[in-house]
Every structure is written in C-alpha cells, then in structure tokens.
Amino acid sequence: SGIITIDPGYKNTGSCESAITYLDGEEGILRYRGYSIEDLAEKADFLEVCYLLIFGELPNKEQLHKFHEDIKAQSIVAEDMKKILDGFPQSAHPMGVLSSLTSALVAFNASSVNVSSEEEMYKAIVKILAKFPVLVAWAHRKKEGLPLEYGDDSLGYVENIVKMMFKKPNKEYKKNPIVINALDKLLILHADHEQNCSTSTVRIVGSSHAGLFASLSAGISALWGPLHGGANQAVIEMLEGIKNDGGDTKKYMAKAKDKNDPFRLMGFGHRVYKNFDPRARIIKKAADEVLGDLGVEDPVLDIAKGLEKEALEDQYFVDRKLYPNVDFYSGIIYRALGIPTEMFTVMFALGRLPGWIAQWREMRLRKEPIGRPRQVYIGENLRPFLDIDKR
Ligand code: CMC
C-alpha cells in the first residue's frame, strides 16, 4: 500500500541502520566502528580488525589470543571437500570455486546453519574465519597446479594464509615481512564498506534466515562482477590490453570518454566517493613501497602510472569526479606479489569476509525483517488466454 518510489541501483535508498562502518563520500572519510581507516591500516593487524568489525570493540590481548585460538581449533576442512575441488577443471575461475566450496561447507557443518543465539553465531563465525582462508589457498593452489597445503598454528592469521597459498613443495616457508605487511594492509582496507552490492546481498540472503555460509556464498557471487570486486582483475586485464595494443594511453582515454563506446576506465570512479577514495590514498603509498622494496619493473605498471596522471588532469574525469579507486592500486600490488590475476577478487573476498560477517550478525541481532523490495508494474493489462494454434 502507499506510493512506491523507484530508485534504480538504490542510489538514495537506505536499507538498514548500522553501527559498523561510517562513510562520508564527499569528505573521503571511512571509519570502522569509529576508528579511522588510516589509523587501522597503520596500527592494527587484520585479525584485530576482524574482531573490531564483528564484535564492535578492539580486542585486548587476552580477547585477541582467545579469538585466534578458537579460530585455529577449527582450521581443518572436511577431507571430502577435496573431492568437490577435484571435480573442477583447473581453468575454473577461482571465484566460482570459492563460492561453490563456501556453499558446500554448509553440508559438512550442519550445526552452523540454524543459528540464532549469540553463542551459536560465535561458533559459526569462528568456523568460517578458520576455514575460508583454507578454501582461498586451495582455490589458488588448484589454479597453480600445486598440492594442497594445510595451515601452521604457530603462524599469525595473515602469515598463515601466505604460507598456505605460496609454500612450494620441498621448500621451507620463509616469512617475507614486506609481503605480509602489504597483504595485512590490503585486507584491512577491504574489510568493510557498508551497504555495497555484495554486503547488501549477504544481508538480504541472510534475512530469509538462510545460514551464514550460504549468505556468504551469495556475497562472493555478487563480488565477482567487474563493476564491484572484479574491478581489480579488470584493471590489470585492461592495462595488459593497452600494453599489447602498443601502449597508447591517450587512445584509451578517448574511448573511455566516448559515450558510444562501452569501454570504461576500470579502477576509476566510485558510487559514493566523489572526491577521493581514502583507501586509494593509503594503498597508493603501500603500492609505491612494495614496488620499491621488491624492486619490481613492469611495463604494465608504467602504463598504470601514465593513465593515472592523464585521468587526473582530464576535464571529463575532473567534471565527473572520477578518481582512481582502491582497486586501481590493489591489482598493482597483487601483481607485484606474484598473485595471479584471476585470484585478485578472491583476495578481495578474503578481506571483505569480516565485513560480511559483521553485517550479517548485526542484521540477525537486530531481528531485521526479510528483505523484499517492491516494484512498479509496467507490463500488459489483463489479456484473454490464446490457444496455442491461434498465436
Ligand atoms: N570510465 C569512464 N567513465 C565513467 C567511469 C569510468 N570508469 N565511471 C563513471 N563514468 C562516467 C559515466 O559514464 C557517467 O557519465 P555521464 O554522467 O556522462 O553519463 C558518470 O561518470 C557517472 O557514472 P555512473 O555510472 O552514473 O556512476 P555509478 O555510481 O553508477 O557507478 C562505478 C560507479 C564504480 C560502477 C563506475 O564508476 C564504474 O563502472 N567504474 C569502473 C569499475 C570499477 O572500477 N569498479 C570498482 C569500484 S570500487 C570497488 C568496489 O566497490 O567494488
């Protein structure tokens, strides 16, 4: 009943009240639970940020220790899950593999489905924080043709992920602090971003009381698209395309501005940040450090630098307030770290996991009603049925 206003893309529709992430697109402010993203990226590690987002406060030492121990106790993924992984071709996109395996986890963890008390929620949350990195590492190793690897309880949360992803057979795992530090930052910067496409998906699927893992699997699918999380992969593919076409960035700038050409400059523009993306500022600095520290020389990255400069000075981009977003730089770092392009969005999903969990938990604890938008019908009026031989 009442008048329905349509708002395509929900550009001006609030779907919920939330106490998790504060974002001011005009001022370029991003805060998790009241803490600035700049402070968190510099001073916290990813596991602390997970705790903060999900439970609302920074953990003290004992709380963080217990949280990590609880996670480590759940880090084994059912052996039969490997058979599902085996069934995928090596060419499968790791986002598809990750979303399928996350869904499949439901079958092996039935007690995590119908959760409503805080205690049951905690158990499901700890389970997914433990098992998701294993699935990420499996998706990566499948792609690379490497044998599967389990974690090492003596390592930190992010360090363990790096080990599970990259450890080569018959080689000691050697910690690289530059890599761990860059990844920690990237994961923190991606950890939450209020009601974006994948988070809204997690909340709406969860609002039907489908379990946490099923809701997360839907979120992964939403994140996959090139207009959302898939942008980081699309950025590098675009840069490679420009390089292979002779490296003429001006030509591609012209294409991006041509309204008859569907080409968009990937990694530029944002639905809410209309002056700058605060995450992009932090990550640009980290990207410069990582490239310097690792001594990476890469023609694709030179093209990125060129495009960035041209776009920042171009009237079309200035008028529309299109700036490089976080994914313009995250792809560059992932590439420098030797992570294959198809894995970029999986790394985004790994970072976004605590945000999705926090938003799902908040939605359930607030007892929000099932998400069910309305529409304005514009189809045919009532028509008489026509028999098939009269059509
Ligand atoms: N290249 C060229 N023109 C663009 C671009 C771009 N990347 N982005 C927006 N525009 C133009 C657009 O054509 C429109 O022009 P006009 O007003 O003349 O019609 C104007 O800028 C406003 O764009 P919009 O599509 O109405 O903005 P939106 O809020 O619907 O879309 C966006 C935001 C991020 C989907 C879009 O900027 C885009 O497609 N960017 C490239 C993909 C990308 O980098 N996505 C990652 C976003 S950050 C990570 C995440 O949130 O997942």
UniProtKB/TrEMBL annotation:
Active site annotation, chain numbering: H270, D327
Pathway: Carbohydrate metabolism; tricarboxylic acid cycle; isocitrate from oxaloacetate: step 1/2
Source domain of life: Bacteria
Entry GO CC: cytoplasm
InterPro entries the record matches: Citrate_synth-like_lrg_a-sub (IPR016142), Citrate_synth-like_sm_a-sub (IPR016143), Citrate_synthase (IPR002020), Citrate_synthase_AS (IPR019810), Citrate_synthase_bac-typ (IPR024176), Citrate_synthase_sf (IPR036969), Citrate_synthase_typ-I (IPR010953)
GO molecular function (one): citrate synthase activity
GO biological process: tricarboxylic acid cycle
Catalytic activity: oxaloacetate + acetyl-CoA + H2O = citrate + CoA + H(+)
The entry's keywords: Acyltransferase, Transferase, Tricarboxylic acid cycle
A Pfam family per the record: Citrate_synt
NCBIfam families, alphabetized: cit_synth_I, PRK05614.1
UniProt similarity note: Belongs to the citrate synthase family.
UniProt name for this protein: Citrate synthase
Source species: Zhouia amylolytica AD3
Lineage, highest ranks first: Bacteria, Pseudomonadati, Bacteroidota, Flavobacteriia, Flavobacteriales
